[in-house]
Design brief:
By secondary structure, the protein is of the alpha+beta class. The protein contains three helices and five strands, in the order αββαβαββ. The protein has a five-stranded mixed beta sheet, with helices on one face. Helix 2 runs parallel beside helix 3. The longest helix is centred in the middle third of the chain and has 18 residues.
């Protein structure tokens, strides 16, 4: 979608990296874990992990996460998946709900900010 829509998955400026809203899709753009917020959250973080690594960083550098859900009642499952990727970094976090995403199969999107250690 990056080239179609005209955005970047991640942008690095100096030691700061912003990773935009990341949806639970596979390499073919198909939704991963339809109906399962835990699996969808894990997929989002796998994409984020790859984007951070491509930018010369990693999960250890995450300082903020934003968990965006279509149903706030799913927050516990999303956070259980988030912990698999963020427990060591212990970033600040925001959890919020919206009406829906572009694809109605998506239950979650994740955004992160990272600061690369010197």
């Amino acid at each position: 979608m990056e080239t179609i829509v005209g955005f970047s998955r991640a942008v690095r400026v100096g030691n700061f990296i912003a990773v935009g809203g990341t949806a639970p899709v596979d390499a073919d753009g198909q939704t991963v874990g339809v109906g399962d917020v835990f699996q969808q959250t894990k997929q989002c973080f796998e994409i984020i992990k790859a984007a951070l690594e491509q930018a010369g960083s990693g999960l250890q550098d995450i300082v903020r996460t934003r968990v965006i859900l279509t149903d706030i009642e799913n927050w516990k499952d999303a956070i259980e998946a988030r912990k698999l990727y963020c427990l060591d970094a212990r970033p600040v976090d925001t959890i919020m709900a919206i009406d829906r995403f572009v694809n109605p199969e998506w239950l979650v999107e994740i955004e992160v900010d990272a600061v690369v250690s010197e």
